[in-house]
Every structure is written in structure tokens, then in C-alpha cells.
Specification:
Helices cover 52% and strands 18% of the residues. It has 13 helices and ten strands. The longest helix is centred in the first third of the chain and has 24 residues, at 2-25.
């Protein structure tokens, strides 16, 4: 309340000062009451303008003043350029006056409306490239051979431009030409996956010729390329993932994505699994879910090759994958008591 009273007092003193000045100077060359009314009208207009400017931002005020000043100089330059016109003609004088009034007014209004462009952030954006920045996703050999990258790209969840370095293609070619049949099949699978991704509509694939001759290891070359392109590295190599993160490179790990999309299994749930082999510990059996998750079942060694009802006891989540531990339902509930005669 004290602040409001202070504003009211200041405005009252301002209005009184303007009215007193008008009475003393007599701009209307009339009775002092006429001059007092003129001074009061001017003061009220100024107070009303001040009230309207209360919610105006500083950038709008600066923009309005800047626009007013610039257009005032433009108006003065135009009037100076019209020196040859007959200033005794009332039409010419009216045109001169109109230029001096209209142009600064337009500059004031336009500058106030565009005043937000005086903010530092927007001023910097004027000098930036307005074109959309491309987001690069650099593929490593393990992600290509794995094959899941093609399915992820086809779903549209992987945005940006997929970059395949030339040195990764050479590594794939070397694997595809290996004498070992297993390695040869893996290399050919990787090349087939690349062809599949290139044929996928909506996916931009770029073969990069950028190389780092002083670096011998492919993994370190991938990290340097990702840093140079400000991109993200797509891999499922555990060691490369850790090294890239230590070097400040963002990584898209396919294994982490797969683990995140796996159905949640809680202790106490019952599932039906097929026991494939025996486990490492005594009397354990091992089964696998459709997504490849390993299920270790206690007291299931004798049930190898059979379906089994399993109750989940715990779930172990690691960066390498997920393991489910369970127990045979009948073993968990124990033998049924014999019926009494």
C-alpha cells in the first residue's frame, strides 16, 4: 500500500507541475484557465501512457526507442533530400510534417513489437545456421552383424542419419572373406543387414570416408569419428560402450534397449519353460525365453527335455543381459501330504 501511495503522490506532483508550467508559459496565448486545461490534458495523456508502459518489457522499450530514433533520422534525411521543393507551398510543408510524424511513429510501433529480438539469445540465433542440424548415428561392426539395428530402424524409433565408416566396411569385408565358416557367415550377414537398411524407406544411410591414419584400433577410430561429427555411437560391444562413455561420447546400446523392452517379471510369478540343459550348480536346469533370457531353475536337472511350471524367485539385471532364477512349482510347494485313512 505504501508503494501505491508513493506512486499516486508522484503522479499528483507531476500533474501539478505540468499545469503550473502551462499557466506560467501560456502556450495557448489565452486565459490562464485554458492553459491550465491544456496542461492538465497533456499531463493526463502522459500518465496514461506511463500506466500502459508499466507491463512493457525492457526489450520492447529499447526496441521502440531504437525504431523511433532510426526512423527519425530517415525522415530527416528524406526532408533534406527534398531541398529543391518549394517550402512556401503549404502542400510541401504538410508533406514534410507528415514525414517527420509518420515515419518515427511507425518506427516506434514496429520497434516495440519486435523488441524481443534484442534479447541476447535471439541476437545470437540470427547468426546461426537456420537449417536443421543433422543427427548422426555411427554404426560399429558388432551392431551391424547383430542385425537388430535393421529392425529398430524400420520401426522408426532410430532417428537421424546412420553413418557407416569406410574402415568398418573394410572390417566387415575381412570377416566375410575369413576362412572360418562361422566368421564368414557373420560377415556376410552384416553386409546383408546394411543392404536391408539402405533399402528401407525413410532411412538416410551415409558411407563416411573419414579416417584416422594415426589410430590403428577400429574402436578408437569410431570414438574419434563420433566426437568429430557430434554424433552417437550405436553398438552392443560392452567394452566399446564403457570406453566411449569415458571419452565423453554418447552411446546407443542395443543390449540396453532390448533389456528395457523385455516384459517385467516379478518374484512369485509362474511361467512355463522348456528345460534345455543342466546348470552350473547342483541339480539346476536351464531354459530360455523367446527373447533369449536365461532361466535358471533349481531342482530341474531331472526334467531336461520337458516343459516345467516354474515359480520365479529372483531376477538379476546386468548390462550384459537379464537372468531369471526360479524353482520347480512342485518342489517349491513341497510334496503333498498323504491322505489319512
Amino acid at each position: 500500500m505504501s508503494v501505491m501511495r508513493g506512486f499516486v503522490l508522484v503522479r499528483g506532483l507531476f500533474i501539478g507541475a505540468v499545469v503550473y508550467t502551462a499557466i506560467q508559459i501560456q502556450p495557448a496565448q489565452a486565459h490562464y484557465l485554458v492553459n491550465a486545461g491544456l496542461g492538465l490534458a497533456v499531463a493526463l495523456v502522459i500518465v496514461a501512457a506511463e500506466a500502459r508502459m508499466r507491463d512493457t518489457s525492457v526489450t520492447q522499450l529499447l526496441g521502440g526507442l531504437l525504431g523511433f530514433g532510426i526512423m527519425l533520422m530517415v525522415a530527416q534525411a528524406i526532408n533534406n533530400a527534398l531541398f529543391w521543393a518549394n517550402t512556401d507551398d503549404t502542400k510541401v510543408r504538410f508533406l514534410h510534417g507528415l514525414i517527420v510524424i509518420v515515419l518515427p511513429y511507425l518506427g516506434l510501433v514496429f520497434g516495440a513489437r519486435k523488441g524481443e529480438w534484442l534479447e541476447p539469445v535471439k541476437l545470437v540465433s540470427l547468426f546461426r545456421d537456420a537449417r536443421p542440424h543433422r543427427r548422426y548415428r555411427i554404426l560399429d561392426t558388432s551392431a551391424i552383424i547383430d542385425g537388430r539395428i535393421a529392425e529398430v530402424a524400420e520401426t522408426g524409433f532410430l532417428d537421424g542419419t546412420l553413418v557407416v565408416p569406410q574402415f568398418v566396411l573394410k572390417e566387415l569385408q575381412a570377416v566375410a572373406d575369413a576362412s572360418d565358416p562361422l566368421k564368414r557367415n557373420r560377415g556376410r550377414r552384416g553386409l546383408d543387414i546394411l543392404h536391408r537398411i539402405q533399402k528401407t524407406s525413410g532411412i538416410d544411410v551415409v558411407i563416411s570416408d573419414v579416417d584416422f591414419p594415426t589410430i590403428k584400433e577400429v574402436d578408437l577410430k569410431l570414438i574419434e569419428l563420433a566426437k568429430a561429427m557430434s554424433g552417437k555411437l550405436v553398438t552392443n560391444d560392452f567394452n566399446l560402450n564403457k570406453v566411449a562413455q569415458l571419452r565423453g561420447v554418447d552411446v546407443l546400446n542395443l543390449n540396453e534397449l532390448t533389456n528395457a523392452l523385455k516384459p517385467v517379471v516379478l518374484p512369485g510369478e509362474v511361467m512355463n519353460v522348456f528345460i534345455i540343459k543342466e546348470g552350473k550348480e547342483y541339480n539346476q536346469g536351464v531354459a530360455y525365453l523367446d527373447d533369449g533370457t536365461m532361466v535358471v531353475v533349481d531342482n530341474a536337472r531331472s526334467r531336461i527335455g520337458k516343459n516345467l511350471e516354474v515359480v520365479v524367485t529372483s531376477v538379476l539385471q546386468t548390462t550384459a543381459g537379464r537372468m531369471i532364477f526360479g524353482r520347480h512349482v512342485e518342489a517349491a510347494t513341497g510334496p503333498r501330504p498323504a491322505a489319512q485313512a
